[in-house]
TrEMBL record:
GO terms for molecular function: 3-phosphoshikimate 1-carboxyvinyltransferase activity. PANTHER family: AROM/DEHYDROQUINATE SYNTHASE, PENTAFUNCTIONAL AROM POLYPEPTIDE. CDD domains: EPSP_synthase. The active site is at D330 (proton acceptor). GO terms for biological process: amino acid biosynthetic process; aromatic amino acid family biosynthetic process; chorismate biosynthetic process. The keyword Cytoplasm applies. Catalyzes the transfer of the enolpyruvyl moiety of phosphoenolpyruvate (PEP) to the 5-hydroxyl of shikimate-3-phosphate (S3P) to produce enolpyruvyl shikimate-3-phosphate and inorganic phosphate. It is found in: Cytoplasm. This is 3-phosphoshikimate 1-carboxyvinyltransferase. Phosphoenolpyruvate binds at K28, G105, R133, Q180, R361, R404. GO terms for cellular component: cytoplasm. It catalyses: 3-phosphoshikimate + phosphoenolpyruvate = 5-O-(1-carboxyvinyl)-3-phosphoshikimate + phosphate. The keyword Lyase does not apply.
Length: 447
């Protein structure tokens, strides 16, 4: 379901020090995968800590449309336990209606992969943002499995996929660093006989591989001269699991950033991911001189996590190497805000993928930061922010149906000289429904 079409403007004003404990919600990437693998397992999967945001609700509804049963157990918002009755690999049936994945690239791309090697037909659609995003990167490899695809202009939603009746296993080099491409191919490979192999030059988030192993699939990753080579044996019987979803490091980045830039702040964020395929931002922040203290390293839901204490302090600009990009791909909007409050220039290289997210994130950040007084340069695949230790503010920023653009500028407005308004805060519901309440509880002036 697409989110409300009624824009909800919101303004962030200069705030006192942020203090307290930030309990961010469940990881979006892990939540999608828990629902999809639960639907492909035989029997009942139980999920705790599932992110209850619009992107995830859309994936849950889609799994029901393909024949799984998905239900929420318990009363407390954000603490729900979910149960999925799976239909087994190859057990999906053709949905009666169009599958609307709303704003979610991960949802639509992983689900296309999951159904493309079963002889059923489904049509996928989404909101105006998702309808602008490239789908050929997914449908191309799915055609190699034997699926038949029609897409608007060969590239965009709506996309109709007729799944392959006799799928062939695939050996596939991903053309760009993308966990969504890797995951779509692996999920399609589940119902192909033999070994499906995905080769990625740069590692991307590995939640699909971790969770497939947890559900009993035979999957291994080798590091060779070609890069990360992931081999999955097709046609497993996936056994249902109990999945405890860890907290989302990409959501954690917003209160962390706010605490770093609002003078006098000190906050604690529990259960932040230390998965090396997700933690690039924290390495960059350390290089910028951020005061970060990690404690209680442990494993939660199969992911390495720790508790993070963040204190405000001076930051300096850095150059972010392109090899870091995949491990922090969703964190560049908020890094560009932090960079504006640092002293000196921060150069972000190898970030062309940002142009095909919920919005063109390089353009959205550059335009919004400039309107609020920052000096920013951009090229097709890089962005440079010339930090001056502060930001003037005073402008209204267009969020283009992009939750991360909205949250980034609301964090910036907490410390800019004049307030910053975002034209539409409603997309925040897609990934972090409690963002405003959580930030207000820390002391942020948002309204
Ligand atoms: O696999 C995933 O869960 C995701 C992969 C990334 O996208 P790409 O695979 O397009 O880089 C990321 O931007 C997105 O938020 C979540
Ligand atoms: C890019 C993102 O998500 P998706 O691709 O799932 O829409 C994101 O959450 O920043």
């Amino acid at each position: 379901m697409s989110h409300s079409t009624q824009p909800q403007p919101m303004t962030a004003r200069r705030s006192g020090p942020l203090k307290g404990n930030a309990l961010v919600p469940g990881d979006k990437s892990v939540s999608h995968r828990a629902l999809i693998l639960g639907a492909l397992a035989v029997g009942e999967t139980r999920i705790t800590g599932l992110l209850e945001s619009q992107d995830i609700i859309d994936t849950a509804r889609a799994m029901e449309a393909f024949g799984a049963t998905v239900e929420r157990v318990g009363e407390r918002v954000g603490e729900g336990e979910w149960r999925v009755q799976g239909v087994g690999v190859g057990g999906f049936s053709s949905p009666e209606a169009v599958i609307d994945c709303g704003n979610s690239g991960t949802g639509v791309r992983l689900i296309m992969g999951a159904m493309a090697t079963t002889p059923i037909t489904a049509t996928f659609t989404g909101d105006a943002s998702l309808s602008r995003r490239p789908m050929r990167r997914i449908t191309g490899p799915l055609e190699l499995f034997g699926a038949q695809v029609t897409a608007r202009e060969g590239e965009f939603l709506p996309v109709t996929i007729q799944g392959a009746a006799d799928p062939l296993p695939l050996r596939y080099h991903t053309p760009v660093a993308s966990a969504q491409i890797k995951s779509a191919v692996l999920l399609a490979g589940l119902n192909a006989p033999g070994e499906t192999v995905v080769i990625e030059a740069e590692p991307t988030r590995d939640h699909t591989e971790r969770m497939l192993a947890g559900f009993g699939a035979t999957i291994r990753t080798e590091i060779t001269h070609e890069g990360h080579v992931i081999t999955l044996t097709g046609r497993p019987e996936l056994r249902p699991c109990t999945v405890a979803v860890p907290r989302d490091p990409s959501s954690a980045a917003f209160p962390v950033a706010a605490a770093l830039i609002v003078p006098g702040s000190e906050i604690r964020v529990e259960g932040v991911s230390r998965n090396p395929t997700r933690d690039g931002l924290y390495h960059v922040l350390a290089e910028m001189g951020a005061d970060l203290t990690w404690e209680n390293d442990r494993t939660e839901g199969g992911e390495p996590v720790a508790d993070l204490t963040v204190r405000h302090g001076p930051l300096h600009g850095v150059t972010v190497a392109p090899e870091r990009a995949a491990s922090m791909i969703d964190e560049f909007p908020i890094l560009s805000v932090i960079a504006a409050f640092a002293e000196g220039s921060t150069v972000m290289n190898g970030v062309a993928e940002l142009r095909v997210k919920e919005s063109d994130r390089i353009d959205a950040m550059a335009v919004g930061l400039r309107a609020n007084g920052a000096r920013v340069e951009d090229t097709p695949d890089s962005m440079t922010v010339h930090g001056t230790g502060g930001l003037q503010g005073g402008a209204t920023v267009a969020t283009h149906l992009d939750h991360r653009i909205a949250m980034s500028f609301l964090a910036a407005g907490l410390v800019s000289e004049r307030p910053i308004t975002v034209d539409d805060a409603s997309p925040i519901m897609t990934s972090f429904p409690d963002f405003v309440a959580l930030m207000r509880a820390l002391g942020a002036d948002l309204g």
